[in-house]
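As the next step, I selected for study a record pairing a protein sequence with its backbone structure tokens, which the following lines show:
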Amino acid sequence: MAIKYIPEPFRIKMVERIKMLTKEERIERIKEAKYNTFNLKAEDVYIDLLTDSGTNAMSDDQWAGVMKGDEAYAGGKSYYKLLDTVKDIFGYEYVQPVHQGRAAEKVLFPLLLEKGKVGISNMFFDTTRAHVELTGARAIDCVVEEAKDPSHRAPFKGNMDVEKLEKLINEYGKEKIGLVVMTITNNSAGGQPVSVQNMRDVSDICKKYNIPLVIDAARFAENAHFIKEREEEFKNSTLKEITREIFSYGDMFIMSAKKDAITNMGGLLAIKEDAELFQLVKGNTISYEGFITYGGLSGRDIESLAIGLYEGLDEDYLNYRVGQIEYLASILDDNKIAYQAPAGGHGLFVDAKAMFPHIPYNEFPGQALAIELYIEAGIRTCDIGSYMLGNDPETGEQRQAEFEFTRLAIPRRVYTQAHFDIMAEALIAIKKRAKDVKGYRITWEPPVLRHFQAHLEPIE
């Protein structure tokens, strides 16, 4: 039975007008976009769930901070405010702002990876996997088995399979493992959290073999929220205390601050104590991003980031944030629509394979559902499945993903209950005609991160 919607812990002070096109117009727009939702114009989208990255509504405090941002090229006061904030929340000594999360990967990964090396993660997200492979290294996923069954409910389906991790290290040889990445929450596995105990276990293995442990921290606050709810040891801890604990087991972290810091632009790269590595990071930052005290960001971005890191840890906000997604999930439960259960932190990952069992992985059921959601109700989403995973870099063959999800990524502080009801109604309507939905083939694709640009056509 659908649960009660959690009221917003804020008031709305500004609105942005949106308009839904007719169904005929939407059919024409998605055809013009070559059946790639990334190619749609934002003005042609009614509810935009393509990503939760940078699509957030900033607070009045953050907008006030925009006016106070120090735009000095070097040594701006907003930079030092950010350093103090990161050290206070995460406890890391060395902090480098960058313009977004993939910039942190671009700066850091070539220092740890090269051809012949291997990176292991609980699950790499698309851009992170690409940056591993761009160094010439191989990216291997090592998520726990229960994550691979969307209908199976477990508290920490984002965890690393610790036994498999150690087996992989011994199989490849510890000298070939360039890094281990823990993604919190685990995006590709459906926004599923990682437990503190799992982080401890992974840290012990990394220390045993002297392998750097990197935390992909884009959704650190949502992960802390789930730990407080589900891990008995931390039920009376604050979210900041939980964050300090989980980050104490890492050696460094990369972060897209466009998620849990509730900003529209920004990223972080922090190293706990390796001063020599940080010096190399600064060198790459200057080459790729700009001087170290702005890292590709304006002073106003840095100021709003420093404020947003604290706002993202507010418990009332996170109860509402996660509650929105649980509300939507409860309606899907009532209508027997499968998703990665339990509901994740930043979105709902609908099981397109279960929705369209007649569409094989190489005809991209997750992308098919994304297209149907746009046609049905002007909702823009994206595939998290074989279409996104792409081709094997060595053989060129289409890889089969562990999941065929369509991700409904929810922007922070943006949509209301009525919008969530429309999402649910659209999925219910599509399920009723699911047997008539067809798969897609790719007619053109770039060599890297194809899903951002590829052209598709329906299979008749």
Remarks:
- The chain has 16 helices and 14 strands.
- The longest helix spans residues 315-334.
